[in-house]
Amino acid sequence: MYEAIWRFFGEWMRKDTPYLMWLLSPFTAFRDEDVVDATPTPAVESGDDIEPALRVEVVRLAEEFRGIFGMESIDRLAHESLEIVAATGARSYLAQLAGRFTRERLRALARADGLSNDRQLDVLFVCGRNAARSQMAAALTQSLSHGRISVHSAGTRPSDQVDPAVVAVMFELGVDLAEAFPKPLTDEVIQVADVVITMGCGDACPLLPDKRYEDWPIDDPHGKAVATVREIRDTIRERVEGLVAGLETSRSC
Fold first, then answer.
1. Stretch 138-148: mean pLDDT, rounded?
2. Cα 245 to chain center, whole Å?
3. What 3-state class would DSSP assign to 173?
4. How far apart are CA 111 and CA 67, in angstroms?
5. Residue 142 to residue 124: CA distance in whole angstroms
């Protein structure tokens, strides 16, 4: 009996090694030669599952933004966000992702329209897929500024998930990207940004007046060995340290 059980688990692990690497990626010290690009394909949610879950998100957001935005406006934006998230190729937890995306957009709208008392500086990081560089930069800015800077990230052609290798190397620094997800550029986050950092998105990156722009020519770590992803992470961290120090100095003057 025990031999049969052992054979079962042995066979399962051989077949599902890519899945296990993805599942354990935040907790695994990958070898330098490892490349992490194999991920499981989650089941597609049906519309019958999504709508009730999205309604829960809308009610929660209506309570959070009471007196700022009405239920109908939030519901409309949530359904729009759901379509945007689904278009990235995300296949599961769509209502929850749409809810989080809607919250980010509502906060940006409130600030852009002068409906919020939040006076934080706002930084937007933009790359192509919003699956690696801009995600790392945004998370590091949030961490190193201790939340004193409002941060957004977006992609001009967003992927369906954050790269597992990026999640892993950021976890090594104590920065958790487990709940991060790629997002497209929307008008609200562009309008509210004080600083826009572009990272390899070329002509597709937004250009608006009265914004401070910086371009960080940093390689895309997608498909690279983990040792290379770590080097890119450290390069981004150095740039973020300089950015945060400069913004906090200018704000205190």
1. 95
2. 23
3. coil
4. 14
5. 11
pLDDT of residue 113: 86
pLDDT, tens digit, for every residue of 200-246?
A: 876 667 677 778 999 999 999 999 999 999 999 999 999 999 999 99
> Residue 64 to residues 67, 102, 110, 155, 183: CA-CA distances in angstroms?
9, 12, 12, 27, 22
Which tokens belong to 244?
Answer: 């945060």
- At 158-201, the pLDDT tens digits run 999 999 999 999 999 999 998 899 999 998 999 899 999 999 87
127, containing H or E segment: strand 122-127
DSSP code of residue 245: H
Q: Evaluate whether 110 touches 61 at the Cβ level (below 8 Å).
A: no
Q: Which two tokens stand for residue 171?
A: 């976890």
The pTM of the full predicted model, rounded to 2 decimals, is 0.77
Record: fold of 120-253 = Rossmann fold (3.40.50)
Give the amino acid at 114: G
Burial 227-244 (b: 16+ CB within 10 A, else e): ebbbebbeebbebbeebb
| DSSP string of 19-78, one letter each residue | HHHHHTGGG----TT-B------PPPPPHHHHHHHHHHHHHHHHHHTTTTS-HHHHHHHH
For the domain covering 47-119, report its CATH number.
1.10.8.1060
- Please state the domain extents for the chain: 47-119, 120-253
